[in-house]
Amino acid sequence: MRVYLSFTFCQQNSMADDVSLDEEGIRKWMEKSLDMAHDALFNGEVPVGCLMVYKDEVIGKGRNCVNETRNATRHAEMVAIDEVIGWCEKSNQVKEAVFSKTVLYVTVEPCIMCAGALRLLHVPLVVYGCSNERFGGCGSVLNVHKDDIDNHGKPFKCISGIFAEEAIALLKDFYKGQNPNAPNPKIKPEKKPESLKMPKPADISNTQLHNTCTRDSSHTALK
Ligand SMILES: [Zn+2]
After folding, report:
1. Phi, psi (5° rounding) for residue 80?
2. Model confidence at 92: pLDDT above 90
3. pTM of the prediction?
4. How far, in Å, is the centroid of ligand 1 from the Cα of 117?
5. Confidence of residue 128 (pLDDT cuts 50, 70, 90)
């Protein structure tokens, strides 16, 4: 697997105050996040995977399970957040203190919902792969991560572009239907007028991919 570590920060500040990272650690955790995304793909979900790391220990991990649960909020990040809460309860740790020193590694830029949750939990730093042109809350659609928003947690820093090409390749595989477990297009032929044709797989792929993630991560990168 090729390695891309020409990352920089969404904000021009140095590393988040409460955490420290090195290239080796970033590579290691992002590769494991990609493994989670592969697992999502294998299970017919949009391939996004993540880890939450506290003091060099994975205390939460997640991958999309929206289709499996039929719950549109079950994004990888929300699944991982729930795991962290469970870990805190089990190990008798204060949630606020743990989240404020936890780094999220995720293959795709967090959406607006997840970015809002991360703000409210005071997660200081997010490392992600490719941008999310359609739903991204860390610069692509809204700047949830850094805007001044009263009573909505704390801004957080981002590092973007880590294994971005690999993350995009997984999304392409999903929307091209190369995964045998990927869901079929949600079209019910019996209810469609005869004059309407089924779209070709290539058309679905191009449209959805464009809407999801085609923007190069360099828009936030300061190489
Ligand atoms: Zn999300």
Report:
1. -65, -40
2. yes
3. 0.75
4. 9
5. very high
